Amino acid sequence: MARDSQATRARILEAAFAEFARYGIAGARVDRIAEAAGANKRMIYVYYGNKEQLFDQVIQEALEKGAESVPFDALHLPEYAGAIFDHLTADPRLMRLVMWKRLERPEATALEAGSYERKIASLVAAQEAGRVDAGYAPGDVLALVLGVAQAWFTTGVGPADTADGSSAWPEEHRARHRRAVVDAVARIGAPREG
Amino acid sequence: MARDSQATRARILEAAFAEFARYGIAGARVDRIAEAAGANKRMIYVYYGNKEQLFDQVIQEALEKGAESVPFDALHLPEYAGAIFDHLTADPRLMRLVMWKRLERPEATALEAGSYERKIASLVAAQEAGRVDAGYAPGDVLALVLGVAQAWFTTGVGPADTADGSSAWPEEHRARHRRAVVDAVARIGAPREG
């Protein structure tokens, strides 16, 4: 019974991830999530509350998984940016989900605020150690690194172009974009000489 | 009469811009647009068709205005990126509108496709003239430049954080972010020595 309920919850979250990535919060329909998960709608409300709360749960899981797969590394920013790019490429629905969040649930959660503060502290230390250009404020370095790593997904040229993330790049393009990410972040983060 | 109708159309587009920037297409309500514009709902359908078509009109106007205020300049990419940043800072609703478009109406219009092709051609020429690093594919340069110029609006640290774009930065922050944009693009675009 307990195992059944755990399996149902997992199926609901998976179906919700797909639904929200495709339609956002306003456009998502709990009926469709219930149907895709083979669960009933009432159970979704019992487990997760309303549609916004279900979204919050989905995004929290996605961000936790992301932080786990791609730990922040202020001492190796180009590699970190490349790993973010890989993580987004592996499932372009993720970037869509994050964009919906930015638009429809913009308030930073405690999780996000804490994660931001830790990144800034690492960047300050990396700047003090002369490993990252100290000419930028640490928050600006972070914005630049993320802006570059996500550029192919946010500027209208990447696989986020399709609602279901189905249009992956040919491998040759993917590799070329990734090299550009890593190279650009290396240039941005490199301490100036003299 | 003709003048009245022109004024009504302008008010509808303005109200639609605000509504779509805040709620996106799925979340927008034509009733609210009608009310804000002091127009009746039927007139909106007569002038612009359905909600999606009204959105297309709003985004097309915004992109045209943007291309006019910030002409692409492959020979001066840092200044171009700074100008994009200024344009987005002046009205953060614009970036929200573009993000909704990416999510809800991702197909490139003829206008966008043409504008992309012209930018690529200019970049190729700038690379051939040795003014932009030819180590990147021209499409990658464009993604990097736009990714950096928009970073403060797409990565969760900028004024796009509020649905109505009301939280502007203190001037000191704005100026610092802008310097980071210009500087980062200068580093990315600079041809490598030797």
Under the CATH scheme, which class of the largest domain in chain A?
Mainly Alpha
Largest sheet of chain A: none
N-to-C CA distance of chain A: 67 Å
Give the overall silhouette of chain A.
elongated
Query: What percent strand of chain A?
Result: under 5%
Average pLDDT confidence of chain A is 90
What letter string, H or E per element, gives the SSE order of chain A? Answer: HHHHHHHHH
Show the largest interface: A-B, 44 and 44 residues
Relative helix content of chain A? over 70%
The fourth-level CATH homologous superfamily of the largest domain in chain A is Tetracycline Repressor, domain 2
Count of structural domains of chain A: 2
- How many runs of DSSP E, i.e. beta strands of chain A? 0
Give the helix/strand class of chain A: mainly alpha
Task: Tell me what you see in this structure.
Two copies of one chain form a homodimer. With 194 residues, chain A is mainly α. The first copy, chain A, has two domains: 1-59, Orthogonal Bundle (Arc Repressor Mutant, subunit A); 70-194, Tetracycline Repressor, domain 2. Chain A is 73% helix and 0% strand. Chain A is built from nine helices and no strands. Chain A has helices at residues 2-27, 30-37, 41-48, 51-69, 77-90, 93-104, 110-128, 138-154, 171-189. Chain A is elongated.
